[in-house]
Every structure is written in structure tokens, then in C-alpha cells.
Amino acid sequence: MDMVCVPPGKKCPLIASLFALLALALPLPAQVAASTCGRLLTEPDYDLELPLIGPIRDQCGGTCWISAGLTMVEHSVHAQSGVKVAMSEDYLAAMELKNQALGGVMNRTNAVPALAGRTFSHVEWLIREYGMVPKSEFTAPDADWAKIGEALYAVTKSYAAKKTLTNAEYERLSKELDAALSKELAPLPANFRIAGKRFTPKTFSTAFIPNHSFKTLFLKEKGVPDPLGLHHSLKDVLTQVKQSIADGKAVYASIRWPEEWFSIQNGLLNLDTNPATAKKVKSSGLHAVAVVGAKLDSKGEITALKIQNSWGEELGDEGFFHISRKTLEQVLQYVVVGN
Fold it and tell me: What digits encode the pLDDT tens for the residues 77-107?
């Protein structure tokens, strides 16, 4: 699961304070020669680069996987149709809590729904199950997701005591959860218009996100057996990343996020890759980002990537980060590319 999801920002004052302390405690990495440590001295000029669709997200509550996933989906929609539309991460977060509430009743494991780390496959499942809506139609920047989880849990209590639910009871519970979400956040949109056409959340996702639209590529780790051949070399992964960006589609990437990167203000994600001096990466967990640009060498191979984060414009290079191939080799876990 992609777990390092909580950003700095006004919506999370406690976490913002933690980031401020980290910025004081952890100095910026020394800028040393790229030839010895694989570091980026300056922001690279990208040979392949995707446009920004909507504002940089500033998520709170453990939803980096939703933010990165939606950035990928937005570019997929744009590549297919030419339509630029920013999708609502708050809608999918609300649907995630609703799904947990429904699942808790049906599985008899009723508990307070809460946002936590997930993967792109879960983003895709939520979109197919509940659809998606434009950010202009549903936004909740000041949502208290813990409070909303409690509200949904309260709705489920009368149903949780039942051994089974009839179809009618299930539908009634679903509507009551929708009503609670509308009360706590904003009215859930039943339909909306994009590019002159009217959609419901599900018809929009069906129209633009067909089955088998994406595939996951896991990076092969040195010294780890792979008898089934399910993992890929970094070169193979980056070849498909390059093709995806060239096709106008962003890439979902799950990376180990070192603690020292929390304090980086210039957006250059560097690690010492010199075997003689490099220290073991102390990761605070996995974090999901969207790859939106690539720097190529004379042979057309990727030397650096531009990634779009979801911690607002204040952190990094106005919300973006830049990572060298050498550093990527140490932290990349898997990517999801468009078919």
C-alpha cells in the first residue's frame, strides 16, 4: 500500500508543524557532482512533458493514491478525447468511506471508516464502482474525514445487527450513506455536463475508462528471486514510462519516500548513489506520485523524471519534484501505465 500520504498545508496543522520541524532538523542534501553520486544539480529541461490539468492537489487524510491515480486518469481522458477536466479527489475519498461502511456491514466487521494507504488498483475499482465527477462539481477542501467516518458509522449501526441484508435494505443503506455524505460535505452530483454532453458519475467513467486500460509493472530488485518472471528491469520499466508520456498519458508511480526528502524545498530528489559513501535509504513508507515528464539522453533513454505530487504548491518546485535515474533505481517500487 502507498502509505506516506499526509501532506503539509493548512488542512493539517499538526502535520504542517512536523514538516516545519523536519525542515530545520534535516539540511538540504549537499549538491555534489552528478558524475559521482547521480545527483541533479539543477532542474532538468524535459524532452517529454505533459500539461498541468487542474490545480496541484493538496490532499489530506492519506489519499496520495487517489491524487496520483486521478492525475493519471485525467491525462488518459485528455489523450483519448482532447477534453481537459480536473476530477474530484474528494468525491473518490467520500466513496472510499462509503464503500468501507457498506463492506463493514456486509462482512460483519463493522468499524469506523477511515482513509488510509491503498494502491492504484483500488482507485480504478472505486472509479468503476462509483464513477467519478469533475472537481468543479464536487469539492470539499475543509472536510474533516475522521468526523465523516464517524457519521457514516452511525448510519450503519442499525444495520450491523442484522445477520443478512435484503437487496432493498442494502439499497436503503446505500442511500442513507449518500445522504450523510451530502450533509457532511456537499450534495453528491447525480449528473453533470462535459464538452456539451451530460453524464452521470458512472457513465462518465464507463465512457472514458474502458476495461483493461492500465497495467502494473513491478521493478525487479537486486538479489531477490523472481522465478515467475513477474518483475521488470528498470530499463524495461522506463521504456514503457517514456512511451506512456509520449502518448500523452501520465504514469502512476509508487516510491519509497526517504525521511530526508520531507525537508526539500527545491524539488530535487537526490540520494547518494556512490557505493563508497552511500547510506542505506531510511524510508518512511511508500508514497504515490504521478510521472508527468522525462529527460532523455542522446540514446533516447530516460535520465530524469518530473513527478507531480499532491502536497500543494508550497513544497518542492511549486508542487513538482525532479528525480534522477540513479536515485529512482533505489526508491521505485512499481508503476502503472496506460495500455
Answer: 999 889 999 999 999 999 999 999 999 898 8
Place of cell 469506523: 112
Query: Please, are residues 337 and 244 in contact by the beta-carbon 8 Å criterion?
Result: yes
- Tell me the three-class secondary structure of 126-181, residue by residue: HHHHHCCCECCCCCCCCCCHHHHHHHHHHHHHHHHCCCCCCHHHHHHHHHHHHHHH
Distance CA 93, CA 114 (A): 10
- Here the cell at position 129 is 464502482
* Chain segment 144-175, per-residue pLDDT in tens: 999 999 999 999 998 988 878 899 999 999 99
Q: Are 39 and 61 in contact (CB under 8 A)?
A: no
Strands (E), the chain: 48-49, 192-194, 197-199, 214-219, 231-232, 251-258, 268-269, 283-296, 302-308, 320-324, 332-338
Give the separation between CA 235 and CA 325, rounded to whole angstroms.
10
pLDDT in tens, 220-253: 877 777 777 788 999 999 999 999 999 999 999 9
Domains and CATH numbers, the chain: 13-82+209-338 (3.90.70), 89-206 (no CATH)
Least Cα distance to 14 among 201, 127, 151, 146 occurs for: 146
CA-to-CA distance for 233 and 216, rounded, in angstroms?
A: 13
Q: Where are the alpha helices (DSSP H) in 186-265?
A: 201-208, 234-246
